[in-house]
Structures are given as C-alpha cells and as structure tokens.
Amino acid sequence: MDEKYCEKKYCVPSVKKSIEFVKPLLKTRKDTQRFIKIKQNDCRLTYCNPKCKGTLFQDKKMTNKEIIDDALRVNPKADIKDVVKFSKKFRKNIFKGQKTVLDGNFYKGLTKKHRKELLQKGAISGCVAPLEDMFSKSSEKRLPKILPKIAKSLLKDTRK
User: Fold this and answer.
1) Which residues pair with 106 in a beta bridge?
2) Is 89 within 8 Å of 141 (Cβ atoms)?
3) CA nearest to 14, candidates 52, 45, 53, 57
4) Disulfide: which of 35, 66, 116, 130 matches 62 by Cβ 3.0-4.6 Å?
C-alpha cells in the first residue's frame, strides 16, 4: 500500500466522521475548511506516514525546529516554549533509552488488536501512543502543572 491509497481509504472516512461530530461547533465555512485541512494533515502524518517522519515517534533525534513545526501543524497559535518542553518530555518517556519505538511503521505500544484494526481500515502507520504511555510515574506529579498551559495554548482562537 502507498500513501495516496492510505489517504483515500483511511483519512477520507476519518475526516468525514470528525466533521459530523464537530459540525455544530464550526461557525463559518472558513472554520470548516481550516478544520478539514488540519485533520487531513494530522491523519496523513499519523496513519499514512512510513517510519513516522516528522513526528515525535521518528527514530532520529528531533531538533527544536522539528518539534515546533510538529506543534504548529496542530495549532498555529501554540505556546512554543511549553510545547517544546512537553514534546521533549514525551519523547524521553516513550523512548526510555531505546533507539526506536517503532515496530515496522507502528508504535510498539499499540496493542495487536488496535494495530490490526488500523491495517484493516487502510492505515500504513501508527504514529500515535495511548495517553498512559506519554508519561512516566515520576512525571505524574508535575503533569498537572504543564497540561493546563498546553491545553490553554491549543484552545486559543486561531481565527485571528
């Protein structure tokens, strides 16, 4: 399977389902188009991206610029300082000294059932982690301090 097939088979239905869910929240056509563009790009990088290039799951060390680009892809108005801090902590916690966290093109932490389901739907990669894999036990105490900042920056109004 190639990336174009994956986008058609996996991302198009996924984006349509997302639109149905958030349509009442999207006030204008411009908001809807922006949402579609962000969801398509996110889907492409998460599920149609061999070796998870350009995401926090890629094997090679990420520069701050790559981390910032990854954050801005989701939210152009994100608080860069907090996102870089969060992303570095996330990578440290999922890699835990390993050179790779990928098994083929899928994150090792995905269950076999979830991986099989993604493959059946047409995905060629799984650059996504369950929430509990994102943080070690030692970071749980500090987690409540940084998450509200990140959530607040992600929820900033991007219509300006």
Assistant:
1) 103, 126
2) no
3) 45
4) 66
* Contact yes or no for 45/123 (Cβ under 8 A): no
Which residues, 6+ apart, have CB-to-CB distance to 137 below 8 Å?
none
Q: 113 — phi, psi (to 5°)?
A: -65, -45
pLDDT digit string, tens, across residues 109-126: 888 998 999 999 999 999
Instruction: Give the residues across from 37 on adjacent strands.
Output: none
pLDDT digits (tens, 9 = 90+) for 69-123: 877 776 777 778 888 888 888 888 888 888 899 998 999 988 899 899 999 999 9
pLDDT in tens, 119-158: 999 999 998 876 555 444 444 444 445 455 555 554 454 4
Strand partners, 103: 106
Q: Are 79 and 153 in contact (CB under 8 A)?
A: yes
Could you tell me which of 10, 33, 4, 27 has the C-alpha nearest to residue 126?
10
